[in-house]
Amino acid sequence: MAMYCLLKLAPLFLAVAVCNGWLFGDFVGKQKEQDEISLWPLPQKFQSSAVAFKLSPASFQIVHAKQSSAGPSCGLLENAFRRYFEYIFGDLKKPEKSRKKVYDSDLVELQVWVTSADPKCDDFPSLQTDESYELSIDEPSAVLKAANVWGALRGLETFSQLVYEDYYGVNNINKTDISDFPRFAHRGILLDSSRHFLPLKVILANLEAMAMNKFNVFHWHIVDDQSFPYMSRTFPELSQKGAYHPFTHVYTPSDVKMVIEFARMRGIRVIPEFDTPGHTESWGNGQLDLLTPCYSGSSPSGTFGPVNPILNSSYDFMTQFFKEISTVFPDAYIHLGGDEVDFRCWESNPDIQKFMAQQGFGTDYSKLESFYIQRLLDIVAATKKGYMVWQEVFDNGVKLKDDTVVEVWMGNKMEEELQNVTRAGFTTILSAPWYLDYISYGQDWQHYYKVEPLSFPGTDAQKKLVIGGEACLWGEYVDATNLTPRLWPRASAVAERLWSDKSVTDVGNAYNRLVQHRCRMVKRGIPAEPLFVGHCRQEYKGL
Amino acid sequence: MAMYCLLKLAPLFLAVAVCNGWLFGDFVGKQKEQDEISLWPLPQKFQSSAVAFKLSPASFQIVHAKQSSAGPSCGLLENAFRRYFEYIFGDLKKPEKSRKKVYDSDLVELQVWVTSADPKCDDFPSLQTDESYELSIDEPSAVLKAANVWGALRGLETFSQLVYEDYYGVNNINKTDISDFPRFAHRGILLDSSRHFLPLKVILANLEAMAMNKFNVFHWHIVDDQSFPYMSRTFPELSQKGAYHPFTHVYTPSDVKMVIEFARMRGIRVIPEFDTPGHTESWGNGQLDLLTPCYSGSSPSGTFGPVNPILNSSYDFMTQFFKEISTVFPDAYIHLGGDEVDFRCWESNPDIQKFMAQQGFGTDYSKLESFYIQRLLDIVAATKKGYMVWQEVFDNGVKLKDDTVVEVWMGNKMEEELQNVTRAGFTTILSAPWYLDYISYGQDWQHYYKVEPLSFPGTDAQKKLVIGGEACLWGEYVDATNLTPRLWPRASAVAERLWSDKSVTDVGNAYNRLVQHRCRMVKRGIPAEPLFVGHCRQEYKGL
Asked: What are the residue boundaries of the Beta-hexosaminidase eukaryotic type N-terminal domain, all occurrences included (chains A, B) (predicted)?
C-alpha cells in the first residue's frame, strides 16, 4: 500500500515542512484514530500511512537487533526498554511466553539497532552527542536505528508517542518512517534548588518529563544567596550552616549521584551551577572570610557582599571547591555564573578601595569583577573542565577559553548580544525569552513557541555558534507544591523550538499536538497543567 | 500571672487593632516559641500570655463540656474532634488510657461547650448562622464556648492554630483568651467544574482548605458552555450528552450528596450555580429545543445561542429542572447566573425578532433577557428558594425578591455598582477584585488583601447590605493538576479580609503570619504554593 504524508490525513497535526520531499497520496479512512497521534517535538522527517498494526502486551517486545552493538548487558537500554514498555501498556504485565499468540496484523517487536561499534552504554551524554535516529514501523518488526544509545533513547520516546488506542482500547501503531535529529545540541531546563529546596523526587519527576520532551541538559542552579543545599565533602560546613536545614534540606553525595545517573539513563547532561562572586550569601555561613565585609561609614556593618576578590584565601578555597565539583559532576562543563554582581558592598569596603587603587582600576568595579572571574576561570580550567557563564562575564571583557558557552539571559538587546558573542567567536545559548518563572494569564506558551533563536543579524558561521537554549524556572515562587504543573507543558514549547525544524511554527497545529502531548504527560504521572478548557481521556490514571 | 497582649510579644505578628481595650503589660521571655503562633484569619479579640502548657497525645483530649447541649450523639462535632486531634498530633495515635500520665504543666482537655438549647448538629449552615465563639486556654482545661456547632467549628480551627512545637518538638499552647466572630457572613470560594472537570477529591481537599481559612460558602459553578457534569435525575441526558464523559466526568447524585455533607461537617454552605440564559451551550446537547437556533441569513446556521426565551417548553423545562435542584441542594439559595448574555444569536433569529416586535421590546435585547430572567426567578421562587444573581440581572432592571443576593463581579465601576445595588436595598457580595484565575508574577495576594469592601460611598444601612465576598477561581486554566496550589494561599488573603476586623490591614504582619499559615496547610496535606523564598520546617510531611 502506498504511503501518505500525515499532512493529508490530519492537517491540524503536522506542519507543511515535514512533508517536503515525500510522496503524497490521497487520504483513505482512519482519520479518527490518526487524531490520537501527536508527536512532540515534531520529528525532522516523517512519513506515515493509514496501515495500522496492533500491539499486544502478550506478544510485543522491545529487543536488541541482532546486528546491534548493544545487547542485554547494556543497562541503559534495558532500563529504557522496560520504561517504554510500561508507558505503552501501563500496568498491563507481559503474560507468560506460553500464552503468547500472534495475529496477522500484529507488530511483534521493535528492534533497536545501535550501529556504531561502541554503543556508549556506560558513557555520559555530552555536547557532541549524536542524538539522531531512524525509525521504521512495518510488519512484522519495527526497526529503530541509531549510532548509539543516545539516539536510541530519543527514538524510543518517539515510538511510544506513535502508539495510540483505537476505538476498542487496543494499542495501534501506523506504518511509519521517521528520520530525526535535533536542530540544536543544547536543550536545557534550569531548576533552582536554593530559593526553595526541591526534594529529590521533584527533580527526578522533572527529569522524566524532560526526556518526554527530548530535553538533554539539566542546568542545576543548585546554590544561591538563600541556601546552600549541596553537601560538599571538602567543605561540609557550607551546607551544615548554609542550607535551610542541615539534614532534611540538603543533597547528599548519594543524592547527587542519583540525579546524575537518573539523568544519564535518559540522555540528559547535568550541568551544576555554582554562581560566584555574587549570589553567594549562603556560602558565607559556612566559610569564614569568603565574602566581602560591607562597611557602614568607617566600620563593618555586619553584613556581607560578594566573594572577597582581594584575598588569596578566596582563591585557595575556590581551587579546592572546584576540584571537588569537577570530580562529582562528570559533565565536561560547569556553569560558573558571574551574573548580577552588586558593587555597593565592594565600594563601601576600605580594603577593597585600596586594592582598586593599587591595581589601577579607578572606580570601575566591573574591572574588579573581571579580575576575580579571570582567576576563577583559570582555576576551573586547570580541572580540565569547560565552563559556562552568564552574559555579563563576556560583556565585561573577561578573557574566555575558546570552548566557553555564554548564556544570554537579558531580554533587552538580546539580538545585539547574540551578535556580539558570536562575532567574538564564542558558542552561546539563549535563555532570555524563556524565563518561565514569569507568569501571566492565558497561553503564554505561545510566546515561547514563537521565538526564533537565529533571527539576529549575523553570518552563517555566527548562527552555528548558537548551540541551543534553556527554559529557566527560577525558584522564588515555586517549590514542590507547584513546580511541575507550572513548568509543564510551558517548557514543552521551548522543547519543540529547540528540537524541530525552523519551519515548524504553526501555533494552531502546535496547540492540537500539545494538548495531546500534555495529556500523555498526565497519563505518565506528570501533573502538567492544562493549556485551556477541555479534558484528557485518561486524566484519572495519572492523578 | 498577668496577661499580655501578644502585640507586645511579637510586634510583627499581630496588628494594633486586636489589642484595643485589653490589658497591657511588659513582655517576659519566650519570644522564640511565640513566633510559631500565627493565627489566620486574625481573631477579633485576642489576648495571650507567655505561660505555656504542654499537650501530650497520651493525655490531651477534646471533649464535650458537661454543660454543653451537644454530646457524643453529635456526629458533626465528634468528627471535628477527631479531625483537629489529628491536625495537632499528626499520625500519633492516642495511646491506651492506662498509659495516660498527666504532668503539672499539661493541658489535659479542651471542653467544647455549646450553649444554645439546640446545638444544630444535624442542620445545615445558612446565611444567618452564628459563627462566633469564645476560647479560653488555661490549666487544666481549655474551654471553647459557642452558641452552636458552627461557632464551635471555627473555634476548633483557632485552637489548633494556637498549638506550636517547642524546641524539643513538644506541642505547646499558651494561656490565651479569644473572642471571635466574622466581619462578613458570606465568605465564599467559587470553583468551576465545567471548563475542566474537577475530581471529587480535588473538591473535598479544597473544602478542607476552606475550613482552615474559615470560608463558609462553596459557590459551585457546576455547569457552563463547555460541559454539564451534573447528573440530573429528571433529565439524565443533560450529563449523558453534555459532560466531557458520561461516566468518568460527571457528579452523580451520590457525589453531590458527599460534597454537601463534607461541606456541612465543616460549616460550609454549598450554593450551586446553574447559569442561564447564557453560558448554556452544553445544556443543548441533552435537551432538544432548549437553546435558540442561530441564523445565518434566512436559514439556521446549525449553531445555538442562549436559552430560547420565547418557547413555553423552555420554562416547562426550567420548572422541572429547578424543582429537582431545590431538593438536591439544601441551602436556602441557588445561584441563577444571568451574566454575559450574547445577543447576536437572538438578533439573527426571525422568530425571536417577531417576538420582540410583539412584546414591544424594539431592538433592546436586554429587555428580552429580563423577560426570561423574570420568569425564571418566579419559577425558582415557587420552590421556596432564595436566589443569587450576577450583577447584570440587577443592572437590567429585573424585579428581584427582597432577599436576593446580587454578586458584583465587574472590576470597572465596582464602587458605583455597590452603591446602586445597596441603594436599591439589595444585599450584595463582592467578587470583582478577587478573580484568582488571573495570575501575575509575584505576590498578588497583597492586592487581594488590600481591598476594603466597604470603601464605596454610602450610608451605614447601605454598608450593612454588603454581606461578604467570594474568591473566584474560574476554570479555563486550572484542573486537578494545578488548582490547589494556585488557589492557596492566595485565597487566604480574601479569607482574612472577610473575617477579621476592618483595621487588620498591615501587609508586613500579614506576610509573616501567612507564611506560617501556608506551611500549616502544607503540613495538613494541602499543597499551598509558597509566598516567596524560604522553606517550611515540616514540608516533607505534607508532600
From this structure: 39-162
The neighbour count for residue B171, using CB atoms within 10 Å, is 19
Q: What is the enclosing helix (H) or strand (E) of A42? A: none
Residue B45 CA: distances (Å) to CA of A83, A141, B9, B23, B33: 58, 76, 16, 12, 21
Annotation says B340 is catalytic: yes
Catalytic entry in B139, B165, B340, B416: B340
Q: Which residue of B has its CA nearest to A527?
A: B481
Q: Do the Cβ atoms of B240 and B287 come closer than 8 Å? A: no
User: In angstroms, rounded to a whole number, what is the distance separating the alpha carbons of residues B53 and B311?
Assistant: 69
B95-135: per-residue pLDDT in tens? 555 556 777 789 999 999 999 999 999 999 999 999 999 99
Query: Which ipTM value was assigned to this complex?
Result: 0.90
Helix (H) or strand (E) holding A281: none
In terms of Cα–Cα distance, which of B165, B33, B109 is closest to B541?
B165
Q: How far is Cα A398 from Cα B156, in angstroms, rounded to an integer?
A: 62
Task: Tell me how many residue pairs between chain A and chain B have CB atoms under 8 A apart.
Answer: 106
**How much is the pLDDT for A99?**
55
Query: Which pLDDT value is given to residue A93?
Result: 61
Angle between helices A350-359 and A365-381 (to 10 degrees): 80
**Share above pLDDT 90 across residues of chain B, in percent, rounded to a whole number:** 86
The phi, psi pair for A146, rounded to 5°, reads -150, 155
What DSSP designation does A81 have?
H
Rg from Cα positions in chain A? 25
Residue A54: strand pairing partners:
A106, A172
Expressed in percent and rounded to 5, the helix, strand and coil fractions of chain A are: 35, 20, 45
Q: 3-state secondary structure string, A496-514?
A: HHHHCCCCCCCHHHHHHHH
Per-residue confidence (pLDDT) for residue B103, from 0 to 100 = 77
H helix runs in A459-506, sequence order: 460-464, 483-487, 490-499
> Partners of A335 in the beta sheet?
A273, A388
What is the pTM assigned to this prediction?
0.92
> How many whole angstroms separate alpha carbon B411 and alpha carbon B409?
6
B248 touches chain A (CB under 8 A): yes
**Cα(B482)–Cα(B464) distance, integer angstroms:** 37
Residue A522 touches partner B, C-beta closer than 8 Å: yes
Q: What are the tens digits of pLDDT across the range B165-217?
A: 888 889 999 999 999 999 999 999 999 999 999 999 999 999 999 999 999 99
Q: Does A149 touch chain B (CB under 8 A)?
A: no
Chain B interface includes A437 (CB < 8 A): yes
Q: State residue A80's pLDDT score.
A: 98
**β-strands B133-137, A45-55: how paired?**
unpaired
- Indicate yes or no: CB of B481 within 8 angstroms of CB of A227: no
